């Protein structure tokens, strides 16, 4: 069930995506089916007050406004947009070809702590004299 994705916090990955990164599930027409925060899927049209599913390019994010419908219709796409790496991936499986996962990750430098500590140990080993 789609609601379980948000309930179990599976759409929130700030550690890996950055503070402004996000994960969405949408259809190939761009309509958001699942989002990390409640209310992001709904769009209220002005002045009529009619509601509909929000499209991915209508999100309040600089990278989202650069998306278009063509970005969501093909196969796997990786795009660079306004300091974000955006991936659009079709969901695998029978009957799922209409849906896409949309992932936006900030492209900022980062440090992998396990690799950083391993680097310190490697420097120590290299500096040690080898027996003749």
Question: What's this, in brief?
Answer:
The protein has 132 residues and is of the alpha+beta class. The chain has three helices and seven strands.
Contiguous low-pLDDT stretches (5 residues minimum) are 1-7
H/E element sequence: HHEEEEEEEH
Q: Major sheet: size, sense and barrel closure? A: 5 strands, antiparallel
Cα-based radius of gyration, to the nearest Å? 20 Å
β-strand percent reads: 25-35%
**SS element count, helices:** 3
Question: What is the number of beta strands?
Answer: 7
Overall mean pLDDT score? 81
| Helix-strand category | alpha+beta
Q: What strand line-up does the widest sheet have?
A: 2-1-7-6-5
Helix content: 10-25%
State the separation between the terminal residues, measured CA to CA.
Answer: 65 Å
Query: Which geometry do the CA atoms define?
Result: elongated
What would you note in describing this structure?
This protein has 132 residues and is of the alpha+beta class. The protein contains three helices and seven strands; from the N terminus they run ααβββββββα. Strand 3 and strand 4 form a beta hairpin. The N terminus is likely disordered.
Give the tags:
132 residues; alpha+beta; 3 helices; elongated; disordered N terminus
SSE layout:
Blueprint: H1 2-7, H2 14-17, E1 22-27, E2 32-34, E3 42-44, E4 51-53, E5 77-81, E6 84-90, E7 99-106, H3 113-127
């Amino acid at each position: 069930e789609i609601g379980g994705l948000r309930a179990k916090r599976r759409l929130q990955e700030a550690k890996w995506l950055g503070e402004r990164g996000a994960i969405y599930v949408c259809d190939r027409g761009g309509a958001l089916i699942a989002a990390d925060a409640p209310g992001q899927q709904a769009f209220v049209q002005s002045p009529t007050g009619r509601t509909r599913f929000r499209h991915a390019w209508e999100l309040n994010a600089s990278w989202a406004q650069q998306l278009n419908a063509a970005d969501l219709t093909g196969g796997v796409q990786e795009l660079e947009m306004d300091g974000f790496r955006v991936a659009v991936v079709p969901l695998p499986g029978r009957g799922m070809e209409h849906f896409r996962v949309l992932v936006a990750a900030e492209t900022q430098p980062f440090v992998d702590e396990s690799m950083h500590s391993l680097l310190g140990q490697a420097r120590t080993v290299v500096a040690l004299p080898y027996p003749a």
